Amino acid sequence: MAKTQGFRKRERLSRRGDFAKCYASAQRAGGNVLAVCVIRNGLPWSRLGISVSRRVGSAVKRSYIRRRIREAFRTQKALFPSGVDIVCVAKSQAGDKSVDLRPILVELVRRALSKASGRGRSSPPRSGVARPSGPGHSDQPPQPGENPRA
To answer: Which residues contact 117 (CB under 8 A, 6 or more apart)?
Structure first.
């Protein structure tokens, strides 16, 4: 086996903070089998993180899905750009033996990266906190003697 075909420890996302950073500000793409979050990492190699929920199935099925995703990444590594973190979120169909994950993973990463480069954001990403808007909801505090609820 060639060295480039391996799945080295440095190519794995394992820290919670790395996953959180990817979920918070990554570009996403999804399908029936997988969803991916992709973010630049500033390293000369790409890293893979895998998330398989308990809803997908038993521990045996989840482990099988993780092995299939790792194998897809390992064999298609040359097709991914260097310097990205990829988090794969598996769906239950990822355990289906008739589904080839390799082209799906490559396509989803390509789509997520094209979203990032194709259209730049004019505003920063939303923080997830809904801010009220409309009459009576300004950023300024109410003036003395002014009814704040009017």
So the answer is: none
- Out of 9-18, 61-70, 76-85, give the one with best mean pLDDT: 61-70
Exposure of 57 in the CB half-sphere (CA atoms within 13 A):
14
- Beta partners for 84? 40
The answer to whether the CB of 40 falls within 8 A of the CB of 112 is no
- Residue 51 has φ and ψ, to the nearest 5°, of -125, 120
- Cα 94 to Cα 92: distance, rounded to the nearest angstrom: 5
At residue 133, φ and ψ (nearest 5 deg) are -140, 170
Written as one letter, the residue type at 129 is: V
Low-confidence winner among 7-11, 90-94, 103-107, 116-120 (lowest mean pLDDT) = 116-120
Q: In this structure, is the dihedral angle defined by the CA atoms of residues 34, 49, 6 and 55, taken in order, positive or negative?
A: negative
State the DSSP code for 12: B
pLDDT digits (tens, 9 = 90+) for 15-50: 898 888 888 887 899 989 999 999 988 889 889 999
Q: What predicted TM-score, i.e. pTM, was given to this entire model? A: 0.71
Q: What is the largest CA-CA distance in the chain?
A: 78
| Rounded-to-integer distance, Cα 51 and Cα 72, Å | 15
